[in-house]
Amino acid sequence: MTQVTLPLTGVRVLDLSYVFAVPYMAGLLSDLGAEVIKIEAPHKLDQTRGRAFGPYLDNDPAQDPWNRSGIFYVVNRGKRSLAMDLSQPEGQEIFRGLVAKSDIVLENYTPRVMRKWGLNYDELKKIKPSLIMLSNTGYGSTGPWSSFPSQGTTLEATMGITFYTGYRDDKPWKVGQSYPDFIACWAGLNGLWAAIAHMRKTGEGQWIDVGMYQLGAALMPEPLLQKQLDDTEPVRMGNEHAEHVPSNLYQVAGEDQWLALTVQTDQQWTALATLMEQPHLALDARYQSAEARRAHREAINGIVEAWCRTQNAAEILHKLQTQGIAAGRVLNSRDLLRDPHLKHRQFYETVQHPEPIGARPIIGRPYKLRFRDAHIKKPGPRFGEDNDNILRDILGKTPAQIAALKASNVLSDVPTNPGISGTMDTASMLALKTLIAVDQDYRAE
Amino acid sequence: MEKSYPDGALSGLRVLDLSHGIAGPFAARLLGDYGADVIKIERPVSGDFARTLAPLKTDTPFPEQSLLFQYLNWNKRSIALDLKLAENRSVIERLVRQSDIVIESFRPGRLHEWGLGVDQLLEWKPSLVVTSITNYGQTGPYAQYAASDLTLQAMSGIMQISGQVDRAPLKHGLSQSFYCAGLTAAYASIMAYTAAQADQFGEHVDVSIHECLASELVLNESYYAFLGAVQGRRATVQDPFAGEPIATRKGYLAFQTGGGAPFETLAELFDRPEFLEKRFSSPPEREKRVPEVKALLEACVANRDAKEVFLAGAKKRLLLGVVQSAEELLACEHLQERRAFVELEHPSTETHMRFPAELAKLSVTPTSVRRRSPKLDEHRHEILAQLKGAL
Questions:
Q1: Is residue B240 one of the residues assigned to a domain?
Q2: Rounded mean pLDDT, A315-340
Q3: Which residues in chain A have Cβ-Cβ distances shorter than 8 Å to B319?
């Protein structure tokens, strides 16, 4: 009987990265068995440990805010933390020692930084020929924009998707939360897994150069091709679809409740007309074909909107689905954590963190494996949590050597420049409606 | 000097693409870009329904009109086979036995009804990876739900936090969900293949498009999981340093703080010393007077062109974005230099177009576009002859 194994058991990953894209890649690799060591600079806190993103547990920064940030624990689950200064020669020496005993290096410094430290791929490959390294930057390591600074939020505009996003007749809109980081995370994992497959076959490592900016084009072939075909561009149309009518978001009964539906065939239009108890609409020549419905977009939106206003979202969602019509509701974070489907699929995994955080639901993976047990193997680390163990167990450093590294600030158990912390002003956010609720009993979930 | 393997990281692999639409074919194509030999099985007569998706080149007959199909299916060979028919079973069996990865996107249960369920496929080839890409995954109460890009974005939570508090929730433009799922399905397939190579035990990878989107909401989820806060949409007047596009004389800019954005640089770029004052440079102070900050920034760019400010600012290391359309991407000097586009010939007219091709640069196993997308059933004889030779 064959023993089924996770693909990264016994693989060690050094993760030098910050914020979302690459840290998330590394977190997802740990779910597949890898030992991931997050190397954090004592003087430069990962933004996800800080005030900018938070949120701190119960909105309380306490004495060690860097160990209380929720988003950090989602993205960095399964990792160990080594808080070490790579800008110092001793830090670089330790890092080279770790590279000799590791398989993958992930980083997202700007192109010049790793070179300045002598830690670029060509140098590291001399230490370990099978090493795979991934560098994720805003614009990649080559090209005229390669030294431009970037983060997901502004890249979303530059990469093109924002131009096609937004309400009808309004300016372009940014949507979601740092979307380019997640595209980069998945695209990076593609390159990484291709490199792993190649390494297992040939023993040869390689360097993966991800430039986030160019990923946008790959996700918007429609306007790129349309522009070349007839020199036109799709217009921003909110939640509507260029071809399917109706396909829109409609307000339903209750406070701020929204139903999304998309009619893709004439048959579905007939079914919708029957559901709305307006069967004559199915026979109306103005609406009978897809082309006709496109010509009467506004009228149809009006009809569906008027009907939806009085309906209960859950009920009509069920009825529409029974008819094979694509329908969904706008779910919020509370809805998602309670969602019966996601519960059934165990999409959120309950991870036991040390107190005071305790057991919390953490986003798992967007795929299930039937035979292999991919899972979040441990909570994200506290800052510098594994400093001593990593240096002792992997590099054989003595307690005296470790103490000396701490004395010279190469190694630290607390951030030396944590920046400002603070609470989130939930009262004004509630007033502005950028928060719609703060549940005191959220831990019951 | 590194060795180079121009055939790609996945050369020697065979992928059977039974999928249709965007997500599955995109995933299978990405495997092809890494060097895998991809055989696409399409429904006879009409083929993959993506052959009807816009933009359409209407001066050529169906089923070769769709430019989107071309983008999603290069590096593949096509054979038209009805998977339902018993007479095709032995061909399908032989194709499966010679494959490493099968990608499919039928409704959960459909392949099983046709006698081609995962158990059957694994019986034929025990080390096979089957990747299923569906709206909500193979299991759970929503497994049979119909969906569109819109309904998936709604159900994922993305729309809840997008748009303006006093307007409707807002989706990402175009068809983002399906590309997101394609990216995920591709890497998960290579991952499972790598695992299967190590222990000779196959796998069924069940990708949920909905969960791909829900996976993006790492901040939204932790707001609730760590303090019970339910996020809403964006304020009527947003912090102008949070990426909201700001109009210039020509085009829109997006500004961002973070990474210690130097307000000295803003002051210098716009010749506005006000930015140095604490009311603008300190985040908590700035948050107290959002409309004032926004008005100042708007005034700074009102008489300038977005791209010019973007280039000037980025050179000074400001976190800046410029809203670009397809036209601007096609003309972008940086994408040109990075060779982000490839030019391909249309299968049945001789027109050439540029397609976005490379995602990331792999130093020894570069990705490649080796053949244009196939015409429906174009490679029937070649594929069948190959099968015969193998027996």
A1: no
A2: 97
A3: 149-151, 153-154
Q: Which residues in chain A are contacts of B153 at CB distance < 8 A?
A: 260
| B321 Cα distance to chain centroid | 21
Nearest chain A residue to B256, by CA = A154
With a cut of 60, say whether residue B246 has pLDDT above it: yes
A373 touches chain B (CB under 8 A): no
Mean pLDDT of chain B: 95
Of A6, A222, A331, the CB nearest to B54: A222
In angstroms, the CA A169 to CA A96 distance is 55
The helix, strand and coil proportions of chain A, stated in percent and rounded to the nearest 5, come to: 40, 15, 45
Q: Specify the number of domains making up chain B.
A: 2
In A295-354, the residues whose Cβ lies within 8 Å of chain B are 321, 324-337, 340-342, 344-345, 347-348
Length of chain A: 445
CB B363 within 8 A of CB A209: yes
Residues B167, B49 share a domain? yes
Is the domain of B181 the same as that of B199? yes
Residues B171-200 have pLDDT tens digits of 999 999 999 999 999 999 999 999 999 999
Q: What are the tokens at B357?
A: 């091709």
Q: Do B305 and B379 belong together in one domain?
A: no
Residues B27, B151 within the same domain = yes
Nearest CA in chain A to B207: A367
A1 touches chain B (CB under 8 A): no
A440 touching B (Cβ < 8 Å): yes
Set of chain B residues whose Cβ sits within 8 Å of the Cβ of A163 = 173, 323-326
The residue out of B311, B330, B349 marking a domain boundary is B330
CATH level 3 topology of A12-218+345-444: Rossmann fold (3.40.50)
CA distance A215 to chain B (A): 6
pLDDT digit string, tens, across residues A36-89: 999 999 999 999 998 777 789 999 999 999 999 999 999 999 999 999 999 999
Residue B36: what pLDDT? 98
pLDDT digits (tens, 9 = 90+) for A230-276: 999 999 999 999 999 999 999 999 999 999 999 999 999 999 999 99
CA distance B257 to B284: 13
Respond yes or no on whether ipTM tops 0.90: yes
| B268's tokens | 């210098």
Q: What is the largest CA-CA distance in chain A?
A: 86
Name the class of domain A247-330: alpha beta
What pTM does this model have?
0.97
